[in-house]
Amino acid sequence: MRLVLLGLFSILLGACGGIPLRGTGDLGLVIERASGHVTLVNTSSRQPYARIGGLGDLSHASVVYSRDARYAFVFGRDGGLTKIDLLEARIVKRVMQSGNAIGGSISQDGRIVVAQNYTPGGIKAFDAETLELLSEVPAEYAPGRFSKVVGLADVPGNKFAYALFDGGEIWVSDFSEPKKPVTKRYPAGLQPYDGLVTPDGRHYLAGLFGEDGVALLDLWQPEKGARKILEKYGRGEEKLPVFKMPHLRGWSVAAGRAWLPAIGRHEVLVADAATWKETGRVAVKGQPVFVMASPDGRQIWVNFAFPDNGWVQVIDTLSGQVVQTLQPGKAVLHMEFTPRGEAVWLSARDDNRVVIHDTKSFRNLGSFAADAPSGIFFTSRAARIGF
Question: Are 350 and 331 in contact (CB under 8 A)?
Fold first, then answer.
């Protein structure tokens, strides 16, 4: 019997000879918005390993990953949804699902990919295996009136939470039956511009552009409805011009506090993550766009809108102080931490480079060329709620 097993083992080794096996946990991709390409990257070697074109308009493109972290789903601004195989470095399938899209998400069980759209306003659900359209939820907030959808996030129970910019509401759609979604609506406030879900999947927050404050929905108790938090923020203060709408998706809870970009102000807003009361503000160099916590929650990295978009600042969450100011390149659009946070990758669009920095010493670890890089997305997102 032992000889038989050894023989079978030898046959299997022979059959696999020449086929390199590898995982995908240290892979990712960089969006090259101007040319419609993505560059596939390896965070262990800190180098690209393939480049794929033909993805259309990738301005404001975003990416989610299959739960096995092999496939990337790229949401383009032109409504294109593209499935990419990271191991074979090829497009598996591409569909045009709308005329103007703004990102997407993937369900808790990994079976449903959902795109959020400006035109026509609403969300569409696709089979993650085949990209077959399963169902759609038009964002008709009043008879004949459709809203742009923003802030789409996957939440537990194969549900998706999102906000209606024009409708001033938060909607939660349950895709337990993918072809028969059930949607519940919650008034939120004026012009919610982006949204996020907390790492535990309990709270959905929508930043409000049309008024001061943030709308908060407790997904464990949705029957209580959305309530306003941080509503005194900015009250009585002069409104400042907004050079670029901040993104909430990059934020996270760190050191028991939530760190959020302040609209139009040179500040990062700090709130207690238990009471949702404002506890402080950190003065920073410009108008923050992304306010991103490192995986261990010790640092907050902040990039800025024009004219300060060549700078990045680092806040220590223990002291609440800016501890480092860097100038990594021209027009830094996005940042992404390696899975355990020993390094951060930054896209310097106007330098046509991706720059890598050590998060402890802040020294430059390297860089590589990319054509007007914007979003950077690593496969470690596959296992995170809301990413």
Answer: yes
